[in-house]
């Protein structure tokens, strides 16, 4: 009995998501319209509301979106009382969710809808053919089977690339960009897209989790839905890092923190004579020594020429900023404000270390979808190196290859960006340099990713809040091995990304 209830609940949830797509997405309803039949839906609510959306599309060639409420009001007098109550609840729920996340993962919704329609068509055809065969209506039974073949052709996924509608759809939807990091780091990495597998490569305790979290935060700030899966950190540690990042707060009583900022060497050594310079006094003394930072120093960093002309010589200095205290009250205030503006679009799942396989992760994503209707645009897995292989025994490299292939498949199946991490070898860790051939475990993972970038940090760079990022692989854009991007950070207040600057050599 329990199993049947669960299956019914899952089916109802899927039907509601399909109806949601018909209401809110022009692209979804256009893709679904050729094979739509109201009889595919098992619930009266789904049949009624889907008909209203399709009727609107037939008249206006777009999804009804907010007009669905007006349509409902015009149909109210023809509905039974229980239908009215269910429809009101559904539309109210849809309105709340649409305010939080005014988009859906259209490609994934389309795949789910077509698969469901195919299953329902098979069920209906099977029932009809059996019934007709029992009553000796063989010719009519054959006609029903022929009708299924026409539907199967629509749903099969095959298409003609020279069809005018396909060409138009290609140009209208050629931009699969989900989001992009701000500033020069965004230009350096390029836009991040659906279906990509992204890997952050670094040594032990070198910042992979911080950057995977930053990918999640940037996605949330773009009103995208994010599923964050941790394979090594406790809930409390993950939550603390996230709260700090969103607040820019430290967990100490001290609220003044030293932040790195970009500066100019010509300003530091006093060789800049431009009237627009910020500081009239140099930083270095007559012997060329740089003092220890103090907020009482008269020197102020200057980057006025940055990006404007070749006179700018990159350097880093510091400034002191006052940050809010990290308390229960301030975290609750921040959380309420964040959800108000960006929606409750983050779900986190933690597993004990080395306990989860890719199949476990897929199963839990299915549960999240079935129980909450939560379909992520971005899936963060921290990190691939500690995913448990599906099968025991065999060569380690073969197991790792299977894991990376499965993660790539997950990105494609879910039409989501999947981001994970990987370690570097001891040699690369010692040299503070991540390269393609320094990826630990199985170098073949480089072939399976769309984007792979490395985290590099010398001891003095760590003290000064500098991270050097370099590109190890990019399937979709040209990149240069001698380029890197300097990223400033203050991890005491959870800020792994403050500012960025692309350079062609290390900052001296």
Write a concise keyword list for the protein shown above:
elongated; 46% helix; DNAb Helicase, Chain A; two-stranded antiparallel ribbon; alpha/beta; 508 residues; Rossmann fold; single chain; nine-stranded mixed sheet; 2 domains
Descriptive report:
By secondary structure, the protein is α/β, with parallel strands linked by helices. The protein has 2 domains: 2-167, DNAb Helicase, Chain A; 177-251 and 325-482, P-loop containing nucleotide triphosphate hydrolases (Rossmann fold, 3-Layer(aba) Sandwich), CATH 3.40.50. 46% of the residues lie in helices and 16% in strands. It is built from 18 helices and 13 strands. It has helices at 2-24, 26-32, 44-60, 68-75, 81-100, 106-134, 138-155, 164-172, 183-189, 208-221, 235-247, 265-268, 328-342, 358-372, 396-414, 426-431, 445-448, 459-463, and strands at 177-179, 192-193, 197-201, 226-230, 256-264, 314-322, 346-350, 378-382, 417-422, 451-456, 466-474, 484-490, 495-503. It has a 9-stranded mixed sheet with strand order 7-4-8-9-3-10-11-12-13, with helices on both faces. Strand 8, helix 15 and strand 9 form a beta-alpha-beta unit. Helix 1 packs across helix 2, helix 1 runs parallel beside helix 3 (44-60) and helix 10 packs across helix 11 (235-247). The longest helix has 29 residues, at 106-134. The radius of gyration is 28 Å and the shape is elongated. It starts with a helix and ends in a 5-residue tail after the last strand. Residues 1-8 have low confidence and may be disordered.
């Amino acid at each position: 009995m329990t199993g049947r209830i669960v299956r019914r609940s899952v089916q109802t949830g899927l039907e509601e998501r399909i109806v949601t797509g018909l209401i809110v997405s022009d692209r979804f309803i256009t893709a679904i319209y050729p094979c739509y039949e109201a009889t595919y839906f098992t619930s009266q609510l789904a049949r009624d509301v889907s008909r209203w959306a399709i009727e609107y599309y037939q008249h206006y060639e777009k999804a009804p979106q907010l007009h669905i409420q007006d349509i409902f009001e015009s149909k109210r007098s023809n509905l039974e009382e229980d239908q009215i109550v269910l429809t009101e609840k559904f539309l109210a729920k849809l309105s709340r969710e649409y305010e939080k996340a005014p988009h859906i993962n259209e490609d994934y919704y389309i795949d789910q809808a077509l698969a469901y329609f195919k299953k329902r068509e098979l069920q209906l055809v099977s029932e009809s053919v059996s019934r007709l065969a029992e009553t000796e209506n063989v010719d009519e039974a054959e006609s029903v089977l022929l009708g299924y073949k026409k539907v199967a052709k629509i749903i099969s996924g095959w298409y003609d690339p020279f069809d005018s509608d396909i060409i138009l759809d290609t140009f209208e939807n050629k931009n699969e960009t989900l989001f992009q990091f701000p500033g020069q780091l965004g230009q350096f990495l390029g836009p991040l897209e659906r279906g990509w597998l992204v890997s952050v490569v670094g040594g032990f305790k070198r910042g992979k989790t911080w950057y995977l979290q930053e990918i999640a935060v940037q996605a949330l700030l773009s009103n995208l839905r994010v599923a964050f899966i941790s394979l090594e950190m406790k809930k409390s540690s993950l939550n603390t890092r996230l709260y700090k990042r969103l607040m820019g707060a430290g967990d100490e009583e001290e609220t003044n923190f030293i932040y790195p900022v970009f500066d100019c060497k010509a300003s530091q050594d006093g060789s800049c004579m431009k009237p627009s310079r910020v500081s009239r006094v140099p930083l270095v003394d007559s012997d060329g020594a740089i003092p220890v930072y103090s907020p009482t120093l008269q020197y102020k960093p200057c980057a006025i020429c940055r990006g404007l002309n070749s006179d700018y010589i990159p350097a880093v200095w510091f400034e002191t900023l006052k940050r809010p205290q990290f308390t229960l009250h301030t975290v609750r205030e921040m959380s309420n404000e964040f959800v108000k503006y960006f929606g409750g679009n983050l779900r986190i799942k933690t597993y004990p270390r080395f306990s989860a396989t890719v199949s476990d992760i897929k199963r839990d994503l299915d549960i999240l979808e079935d129980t909450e209707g939560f379909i992520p645009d971005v899936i963060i897995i921290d990190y691939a190196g500690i995913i448990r292989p599906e099968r025991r025994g065999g060569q380690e490299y073969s197991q790792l290859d299977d894991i990376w292939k499965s993660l790539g498949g997950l990105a494609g199946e879910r039409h989501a960006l999947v981001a994970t991490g990987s370690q570097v070898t001891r040699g690369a860790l010692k040299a503070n340099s991540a390269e393609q051939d320094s990826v630990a475990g199985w170098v073949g993972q480089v072939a399976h990713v769309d984007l792979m970038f490395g985290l590099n940090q010398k001891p003095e760079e760590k003290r000064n809040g500098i991270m050097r990022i370099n590109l190890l692989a990019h399937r979709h854009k040209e990149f240069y091995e001698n380029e890197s991007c300097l990223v400033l950070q203050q991890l005491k207040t959870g800020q792994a990304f403050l500012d960025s600057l692309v350079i062609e050599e290390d900052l001296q």
